[in-house]
Amino acid sequence: LVANTFRNTLIIEHRGSVITGKLFNDDIKDGRIESDGSVHFIRSGPNQVYTGTISTTAQGQLRLFGTFDCPVTGGRNLTWEAIRK
Fold first, then answer.
1. pTM of this prediction?
2. Are 63 and 70 spatial neighbours (Cβ–Cβ below 8 Å)?
3. How far apart are CA 3 and CA 58, in angstroms?
4. Inter-CA distances, 31 with 19, 60, 61, 72, 78, Å
């Protein structure tokens, strides 16, 4: 994952439309996948709200990307991207 130039591992699991996991060692809460392929989750700790889309790269890898808001810094619409390796 690259989130506003910071790199880390995004660990996600999904059961149906529910997403759980870890981001920067914080739990993911209120995670969900919508029927249109959009994703929504909150990184607990700093309470960052992530929204985005699921797609595939030209090489067939799973890709998630979108924006997030950071209440700690006041940043809004910061970009993030995760590609399954």
1. 0.90
2. no
3. 21
4. 4, 24, 21, 20, 18
Q: Which two tokens mark 40?
A: 């929504």
Provide the token pair at 59: 């090489």
Q: Contact, 42 vs 30, CB < 8 A?
A: yes
Residue holding tokens 């997030």? Answer: 68
85 pLDDT tier (thresholds 50, 70, 90): confident
Nearest residue to 32 (alpha-carbon basis) of 23, 43, 21, 40: 40
The tens digit of pLDDT for each residue in 36-75 reads 989 999 999 999 999 999 999 999 999 999 999 999 999 9
Distance CA(31)–CA(41), nearest Å, equals 4
DSSP single-letter state for residue 73: T
